[in-house]
Amino acid sequence: MMEQKNHAKMAFISCVNDEKEYAQCCCYLEHLNIPNAFEIETIAVREAASMASGYNIGMQYTNAKYKVYLHQDVFITNKNFIFDLLQIFSQDDKIGMAGMIGSKKLEKNAVAVTGWDLGAVASNGTPSILTFPQEECRYTQAQAADGFLLATQADLPWREDIFDGWDFYDISQCMEFQKAGYQIVIPSQKEPWCYHDNTYSKMTEYESYRERFCQEYAAWGSFEFRKRSDYLLNFERAKETVRREVELLISNRAVTELRKLFNTSENRGFLYLREYECIVFIDWLEEQRQIQNRFWLEGMTAEQLVTKLRSLKYALKRIEYGVAGYQAENEDIHENYSQYAKAVVCDYYHIDVKESGMAREG
Known about the structure:
There is one protein chain. By secondary structure, the chain is α/β, with parallel strands linked by helices. The chain has two domains: 6-202, Alpha-Beta Complex (Spore Coat Polysaccharide Biosynthesis Protein SpsA, Chain A), CATH 3.90.550.10; 237-348, no CATH class. Helix content is 40%, strand content 18%. The protein has twelve helices and 13 strands. The protein has a seven-stranded mixed β-sheet. Strands 4, 6, 7, 8, 10 and 13 form a six-stranded mixed β-sheet that branches. Strand 7 and strand 8 form a beta hairpin. Helix 8 packs across helix 9 (274-288) and helix 10 (302-320) packs antiparallel against helix 11. 38% of the residues are buried.
């Protein structure tokens, strides 16, 4: 660990395995307002063995006092994020960590993901904006915070010795900070400070790490591991199987089967299939309207289609949040995508472009 901390520096640390997604994350960082004589640094840790180990590498790499550990699919939309965060940390040296959403107190079973009751975030989930009322104050103390973004002004090792995967590393770190005498806080946000561009979470190892967490912190938080129904694990495994089958249908351009699949109401609305559902719906609309410049071109694989879909979504999101050169962005979108492709993506990803200056035809 570097001994001399730079108090006028903030490092943004991410574990990266998707360069296009991370480029979007950095695009939003480049548009943040920065205090005078202050410096920001972006650190990408590639090929990390786990989230905790990757964050430990990033922490060792920088001398910044302030560190923001964020997923590669998190876009900071509050342009005054740095100012707001520094103001919170300046209130009390005992505030060691800040998150965007969190929980005042975790349930004894430590299932944090369904127990958030503080903060706010915009995302691809349902609802598209998750927000909880907070008292009229700058922040609220929490026991735990979600790991999509955790900011610190103190350094403690992440417990990669126990959490050697991608679950519970965040809740563990919250416990470690509190054991060391620090507070965890969630800022009050009139509008969410972040957009989480999540697709879906692979949670096949979640129960295993929940058991480790409960064992490690049982005395600290009265946590108790009780095995839940095997249905949850079976459902997570089934999602992986379904995704692979839908990918195969798309690569084989099995349009009839795909339309039949997503025309059934009970098969629609799942986050882990949303990109495929969106692609199929765009294709159907463009066929109905006899569009010449089609989104789904002959011979495209599922991977190529998803990449194309995300490129359009990224561009529309940049316009929505004001981090784009509007004229060039608009020209590219209008030239390469039909009005139906744009409209479907806006609807599926809750994009409001009314105030952005981008007109939607039709």
